[in-house]
Amino acid sequence: MATLPRPLVGDGSPVPCLDGTERPYLSFDAAASTGALPAVADRVQSFLPMYSSVHRGAGYKSQLATDAFEEARASALRFAGRTGGDDVAIVCRNTTEAINHLAYRLRLDRDDVVVTTVVEHHANLLPWTRLPVQRRFVDCDLTGRFGVDDVVAALEHGVRPALLAITGATNVTGWLPPIDAIIEAAHERGVPVAVDAAQLAPHRPLPAGADFVSWSGHKMYAPFGAGILVGPRSAFADGDPFLAGGGAVDLVDLDEVVWTDPPEREEAGSPNVIGAVALGAAVEELEAIGWDELVAHDIELAGALRRGIAAIDGVALLGPPLEETTLPVATFVVEGMPHALVAARLSAEHGIGVRHGCFCAHPYLIRLLGLPQAEIERYRDDLRNRDKRRVPGAVRASGGIFTSLADVDRLVAAVTEIVHGGAAPVEYEQDPATGDYWPAGDTAPWSAGDRSLGASCARG
Ligand SMILES: Cc1ncc(COP(=O)(O)O)c(C=O)c1O
Model confidence over 275-307: pLDDT tens digits? Predict the structure, then answer.
């Protein structure tokens, strides 16, 4: 029996709208962060009375907390398809930290090449940019995709790369690169692969063939601040850890240190036990639902969402054609209406939460929008001057296991009304510092005085 959609904690909470009524909040921002699964919240609640220090206490509660932490680590490894091997799961804050951690730990130098792609989130671009390495990029077409052949061409372009760093699914279009075939092609050429699975994790099984995988709990219904980096133990066995400090060492003198073994070597400082326990509970819950149902729901939702948005006159859906299976993500532009205004109106008039802007993926967005060079130069100049009024971008609606087809209907009706329903009920004013719009007037809590509530999408 189908058990999806499944409400998350706080789903449907009433939020105030401009017309003075309250509407049940509808999150279409799952690609950014999700609420907690009830099973995750229950696990955290029942663990809290047992909370204690991990790997640092002789007390009984420390034994229990350490057990819970290690159980969560085991769940993460299982979720990544790594049982029985010699991989380790390192508990960190999120995908961004995991990739920075990996970039530091691989100890690459200026002769090394890292191949990555233009569809990456900044989290999988910037950590490689800071290294002294040479970078090679796989470009995409106007629909935001590339093929295995394009990746192979980049891998074979010159000296053998030290790493292919690639996303398992993009946060902008929901496109799923053929990741297993890409990993196979890279391995055939002796190139290890690091997969950014931040978007993939809540939607599809993680690629068991990848050498390194990272993901975040807050995008998979465990918003308690933990993320995971999985990789072979050998990659972390030598050299300085990313963070130096207590818990990562066996011996310290003022002029000597003996680092301990991974994964603890990579987890200096007191770990986020609650975050790990929550992430482990989310893994168990997703396993209990099962990938068959998760994927079936995802595909039905993605189709309805993308078709519904694409069918609105004056709205252009970015990314792959409708026939392609993607994550439940619809990223779109409205002809003649700034993306920030569409998002503001969805929130203030309809109680619907989406994201707008460039989604921390500037190189990808400018390709999807097909921006001419002059326009790119213009907006970059604006940004250097901290003027965000004319930043190009789009609106992104993204769903998850909590999203129903009725939710899609509500979103599509709201976008249709914004695009075709005539003038907005009030004027909206734009803040040049963030580019966000805010209703003019004094309807609480949408009055000018409440503007500090604005959660700007401006930062990349
Ligand atoms: C594809 C992708 N990679 C990495 C990240 C960064 O994740 P986090 O903010 O949890 O570090 C995100 C976040 O949106 C993402 O979508």
Answer: 999 999 999 999 999 999 999 999 999 999 999
Ligand 1 mean position to 222 CA, how many Å? 14
Q: What is the mean pLDDT of residues 119-129?
A: 98
Ligand 1 probe mutation, 92, 120, 121, most atoms within 8 A of CB? 121
Q: Is the domain of 92 the same as that of 128? A: yes
Of 288, 303, 327, the last residue of a domain is 288
Rounded to 5 degrees, what are φ and ψ at 83?
A: -110, 145
- Which residues share a beta bridge with 256? 253
Residue nearest to atom 14 of ligand 1 (CA): 32
Longest dimension (CA), the chain: 72
Q: Whose CA is closest to 144, among 174, 165, 114?
A: 174
Alpha-carbon distances, residue 430 vs 194, 340, 437 (angstroms) = 40, 9, 4
Compute the distance between CA of residue 306 and CA of residue 289 in angstroms, rounded to an integer. Answer: 24
For residue 431, the enclosing domain spans: 14-30+290-453
Is the alpha carbon torsion for 310, 316, 322, 328 positive or negative?
Answer: negative
Nearest CA to ligand 1 atom 16: 171
Of 27, 382, 434, nearest to 451 by C-alpha is 434
96 lines ligand 1 (CB under 6 A): yes
- Are residues 156 and 18 part of one domain? no
Six token digits for residue 151: 């990746």
173 lines ligand 1 (CB under 6 A): no
Whether 246 maps to a domain, the answer reads yes
What CA–CA distance (Å, rounded) separates 300 from 321? 16
Residue where one domain finishes, among candidates 288, 305, 321: 288
Q: What is the C-alpha R_g of the chain?
A: 23
In DSSP notation, 227-281 reads: EEEEEEGGGGSSS--SS-STTSEEEEETTEEEE--TTGGG--S---HHHHHHHHH
**Alpha-carbon span 460 to 457, nearest angstrom:** 8
Closest atom, ligand 1, to C-alpha of 216 = 10
**332 dihedral zone (left: phi>0; alpha: psi -120 to 50; beta):** beta
The predicted model scores a pTM of: 0.97
Distance in Å, CA 9 to ligand 1 centroid: 22
pLDDT band at 454 (very low <50, low <70, confident <90, very high): low
Tally of structural domains, the chain: 2
**Where do the H-state alpha helices sit in 311-424?**
339-350, 362-368, 373-384, 405-420
Residue 1 forms part of a structural domain: no
> Catalytic residue positions?
360
